[in-house]
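Reply to thread "Modeling small-molecule complexes from scratch"

Following up on the discussion above, here's a worked example others can learn from. I took a protein sequence and the SMILES for magnesium ion and predicted the complex. Inputs first:
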Amino acid sequence: MMLRVIELKKYFRARGPLFRSGREPVRAVDGVSFSIEKGRTFGLVGESGSGKSTVAKLIVNILRPDSGRIIVNGDCDIVFQDPFSSLNPRMRIRDIVGESLRIRGISRRETEKRVKETLALVRLERTGCIDKYPHQFSGGERQRIAIARAIIRHPGMIVLDEPVSSLDVSIQAGILNLLKDLQQGLGLTYVFISHDLRVVEFMADTVGVMKDGKLVEIASSREIYTAPRAEYTRHLLNSIPRIRPE
Ligand SMILES: Nc1ncnc2c1ncn2[C@@H]1O[C@H](COP(=O)(O)OP(=O)(O)OP(=O)(O)O)[C@@H](O)[C@H]1O
Ligand SMILES: [Mg+2]
């Protein structure tokens, strides 16, 4: 098992003098449990505010849970939705992608070699690109840079929080196929978050449907789309355009 999440809870309490008394906390994550086998993809879907990103941040330790446990078998990294804001505009690509190696004391030369190898893996091989800055790349290229940064230390698992949602539909498929190839080649395990059910259906083996901080259904990707059990899942499915003919 690569990841096991047990009864995870995270409530956000309203702060400040105006809200001191009587306000209910936001139950962003309210008793979530699931697990993922190595090399598989767990998809997390649900409407805005259902708690998906909070689950992501708990898994990669950006947030601490109020209660519950997260057992990760190895290293884990994260790719965010928006490569504009997740890449430091004042850093060169070599430093963005290589930072985690340099922090661990790996030499400048070895880091440069690994950065180049990793950029080739994400198919970003334009000459001289390691000395450029994020604004000199397109949105899709920037997301490749964010993916390179996440995989350079060979983590076992990557949490992808809406990795293609900010991208033009015409380039989404390229990124999704790249993620699949990397998963195959490197044996990566993914937590793949999206509000786009078609994207999750393409990527995930197992899908969890979130609503108000809870998982209302967990099933194989096929079951979710062909025989959804929870009423809420049916509601979500009905609210998206179909990709398959009926
Ligand atoms: N740092 C925070 N402080 C207070 N409330 C928060 C914080 N982060 C998230 N929340 C609240 O927790 C709930 C879940 O938010 P979260 O970002 O996890 O949802 P989401 O499913 O990722 O939504 P989206 O699809 O819009 O990205 C929301 O009600 C949100 O307003
Ligand atoms: Mg989110």
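What I'd highlight from this example: Strands lie at 3-12, 26-36, 41-45, 67-72, 76-79, 157-161, 189-193, 206-211, 214-220. The mean pLDDT is 91. Questions welcome below.
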